[in-house]
Amino acid sequence: TGFVFQTLQMDVNKLNITLLRMFRQGVAAALGLLPQQVHINRLIGKKNCVELFVSPVNRKPGISDALPSEEVLRSLNINILHQSLSQFGITEVSPEKNVLQGQREADKIWSKEGFYAVVIFLSIFVILVTCLMVLYRLKEKIQLSLRQEKEKKQEIHLSPLPLQTSQSEYKTTNSMVQPEQAPKVVNVVVDPQGQCVPELKPPLPASPSPFRMKPVGLQERRGSNVSLTLDMSSLGSVEPFVSVPTPREKVAMEYLQSAGRVLTRQQLRETVACSHLLQTEFMEIPMNFVDPKEIDIPSHGTKNRYKTILPNPLSRVYLKPKNPSDSLSTYINANYIRGYGGKEKAFIATQGPMINTVNDFWQMVWQEDSPVIVMITKLKEKNE
């Protein structure tokens, strides 16, 4: 709806009212219209051009109606335009975007500059992405080296225990129950607060071991790390390990039921800094073997992942049965654990749920209203 006439010999910023009237009259003469129908919209100093539009003859007052730029160009007489406005030096008339524009050389220059700007931006972007990838790889390598160093620090040196000769020799079998190791001497000492604190004295080592071993896990300390193979003929009728509790076992059981050690802030910091101290303390805890006959529930072995790891009857978790006559539905391999300051039933320790105990596991979570579930084993151990 408008035209821009670009002048090269005269600066549009120097056009006064008189020159603009002459410009308007010259355009009207080239179009064969009245000067009142030609309207100058604005002067564009950057492109050195004039923007104008043409209104129809029967234009209503107050309504800015303009003729299409294509129609105006068809009726424009170029010869009359150059003759009447020769002093302005008009070089181009363009209807692009309803504006008569010029200086296409400037547009070409802008296109080239824009291309260069895009290339520079892409180059900077590629450089930044490359730097971020390099930094990420370096961070992964540093974290991997830190984990390896941490694992090396967690390794402990074990000395071989002196072998005690006996008349009967143990023969290696495929039984799940391994021979019991030489017992440790336990001395019960009563502290000023009246608590029994046993002192565990391991046998004297023979000589330093030339090799290094990783810390022993809970399953190995309890005698086996082999997954349970169910024998339906012997479920619920497993022979006990010890028929009559020995004095050492009684002392160990009393220690497990009453022992506790509240750490100060400094002791907690030292334990975190030296993880082998926690491993050493864990190794000094007496064994918590359970006589299977103490669990008077037929076929409870079907719900145990390991044959030698059973829940302690004194702190075992009892599930609420749906059928009062079904005692097996109350059984789950789980125990309550005291919390900080001797708080009862602060935690629950249980085995990883199996296919046939998943429902029991979630029933226990719902029954005990457990807010947090923590898994302290690996997702996959020895292809299991």
From TrEMBL:
The chain crosses the membrane at residues 115-138. The keyword RNA-binding does not apply. One of its GO terms (cellular component) is plasma membrane. Pfam families: PTPRR_N (PF26155), Y_phosphatase (PF00102). InterPro entries: Prot-tyrosine_phosphatase-like, PTP_cat, PTPRR_N, Tyr_Pase_KIM-con. It comes from the Eukaryota. It is an enzyme of class 3 (hydrolase). One of its GO terms (molecular function) is protein kinase binding. Residues 278-384 form the Tyrosine-protein phosphatase domain. It comes from Tinamus guttatus. The keyword Isomerase does not apply. Keywords: Hydrolase, Membrane, Protein phosphatase, Receptor, Transmembrane, Transmembrane helix. This is protein-tyrosine-phosphatase. GO terms for biological process: signal transduction. Its EC number is 3.1.3.48.
